[in-house]
């Protein structure tokens, strides 16, 4: 019992150190963020939009990319199924924004198990320009988005630019997911940026040079990975290019979902992280201070020092969540449901434990198996 108490105490202190590092990393990010744009640099860009199905916010999300204050850009919407209702949304966009250069590519050609990547590859053939910007369909942006995200590409050593995101959520399950993303996941991202630099990218935004994409093997190189966005940052970084985390924050719109579906999705991504970055997944062991401090109170029978450790641990955790979620991301979910962070942490600890078991997932109607490195195999 004494060994357990000491172990829990050590884990609490390790989590507190992580929270302090997360706060420092967030403040460092805010200091280095300039939010400045050069009026001289605005290269033509092609926006690739892989689509599948329609959600409540799909039209508004896509329309935000059609309203950019930018000299020259092209949007390519790619769809796999000719019966997909999202095609009607694209046709409506063409009518409303006739001045925008946009094209719809419909093709069911497959290059791997990841259908989204096949969608991207099918749309790439229609791309006119050498700077490609990939953004998921559940993302919306402001009119100054393009001008901001291309700025780091003035440096020829920069191969990829990616963005953090703030979420809007509908329903309890989506709220918990958004709360965790803003107050915990992004904190980990900023710590990673501080300690080892950025070696990943997010589906919220990936600005990549065509030559960089070709150098890593094109979309075919990531066609069998679940975390395709991660690979589009990781592979260029391994090829010697810089990956920059932009100071522009995009909006992520989470659709209403059930607790069961949300849990399945979180476990799927937990398993993906485990096989893609096993070291990083095990490293999460040292970040669950909310859980460890609660267990310490239980195992010590409510000893005064255990309550003190819990107060300090929870206080630092909430402070990190507030600074990252509210001060850096201006996330409305964190601002409103800040007090639920400890409960969310306990739930995610259980999901993290579940992530150690199994390697089969269900994704977009496919039965798939995760293998070493995060690759997918069809079942």
Explained architecture:
By secondary structure, this protein is α/β, with parallel strands linked by helices. The protein has helices at 2-32, 58-65, 86-96, 115-124, 145-149, 172-196, 210-215, 228-238, 259-276, 278-283, 289-299, 304-328, 332-337, 341-354, and strands at 45-51, 73-79, 101-106, 131-134, 139-140, 158-162, 165-169, 206-209, 242-245, 250-254, 360-363, 366-371, 375-378. The strands form three sheets. The chain has a seven-stranded mixed sheet with strand order 3-2-1-4-8-6-9, sandwiched between helices. The protein is globular and about 70 Å long. The model has no long low-confidence stretch (mean pLDDT 92).
Question: What is the gist of this entry?
Answer:
The protein contains 14 helices and 13 strands. The protein is an alpha/beta fold. Helix 1 packs across helix 6, helix 6 crosses helix 12 and helix 6 crosses helix 14.
What keyword list fits this structure?
seven-stranded mixed beta sheet, alpha/beta, three-stranded mixed beta sheet, 379 residues
Order of helices and strands: HEHEHEHEEHEEHEHHEEHHHHHHEEE
Number of strands: 13
Query: What is the number of helices?
Result: 14
Shape: globular
Beta fraction: 15-25%
- Category from helices, strands and their pairing: alpha/beta
Unreliable stretches: none
Calculate the mean pLDDT score and round it: 92
In whole angstroms, the N-to-C terminal distance is 45 Å
State the helical fraction: 40-55%
Biggest beta-sheet profile: 7 strands, mixed
| Order of adjacent strands in the largest pleated sheet | 3-2-1-4-8-6-9
Rg over alpha carbons: 21 Å
């Amino acid at each position: 019992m004494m060994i357990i108490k000491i172990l829990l105490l050590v884990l609490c202190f390790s989590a507190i150190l992580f929270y302090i590092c997360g706060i420092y990393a967030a403040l460092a990010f805010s200091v280095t963020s300039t939010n400045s744009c050069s009026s001289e640099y605005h290269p033509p860009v092609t926006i690739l939009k892989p689509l599948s199905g329609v959600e409540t916010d799909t039209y508004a999300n896509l329309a935000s990319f059609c309203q950019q204050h930018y000299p020259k850009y092209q949007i390519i919407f790619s769809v796999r199924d000719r019966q997909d209702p999202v095609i009607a949304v694209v046709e409506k966009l063409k009518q409303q924004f006739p001045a925008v250069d946009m094209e719809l590519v419909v093709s069911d050609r497959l290059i791997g198990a990841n259908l989204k990547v096949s969608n991207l590859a099918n749309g790439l053939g229609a791309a006119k320009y050498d700077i490609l910007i990939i953004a998921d369909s559940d993302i919306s942006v402001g009119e100054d988005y393009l001008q901001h995200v291309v700025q780091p590409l003035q440096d020829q050593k920069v191969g990829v630019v990616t963005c953090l995101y703030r979420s809007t959520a509908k329903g309890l399950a989506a709220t918990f997911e958004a709360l965790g993303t803003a107050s915990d996941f992004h904190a980990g991202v900023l710590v990673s940026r501080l300690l080892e630099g950025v070696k990943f990218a997010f589906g919220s935004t990936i600005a990549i040079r065509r030559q960089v994409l070709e150098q890593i093997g094109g979309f075919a190189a990531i066609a069998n990975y679940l975390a395709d966005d991660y690979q589009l940052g990781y592979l260029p970084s391994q090829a010697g290019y810089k990956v920059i985390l932009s100071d522009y924050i995009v909006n992520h719109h989470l659709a209403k979902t059930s607790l069961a579906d949300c849990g399945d999705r979180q476990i799927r991504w937990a398993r993906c992280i485990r096989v893609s970055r096993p070291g990083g997944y095990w490293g999460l062991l040292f970040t669950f201070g909310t859980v460890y401090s609660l267990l310490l109170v239980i195992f010590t029978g409510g000893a005064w020092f255990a309550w003190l450790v819990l107060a300090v641990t929870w206080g630092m955790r909430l402070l990190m969540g507030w600074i990252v979620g509210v001060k850096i991301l201006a996330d409305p979910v964190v601002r409103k449901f800040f007090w639920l962070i400890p409960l969310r942490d306990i739930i995610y600890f259980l999901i993290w434990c579940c992530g150690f078991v199994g390697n089969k997932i269900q994704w977009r109607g496919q039965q798939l198996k995760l293998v070493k490195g995060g690759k997918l195999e069809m079942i």
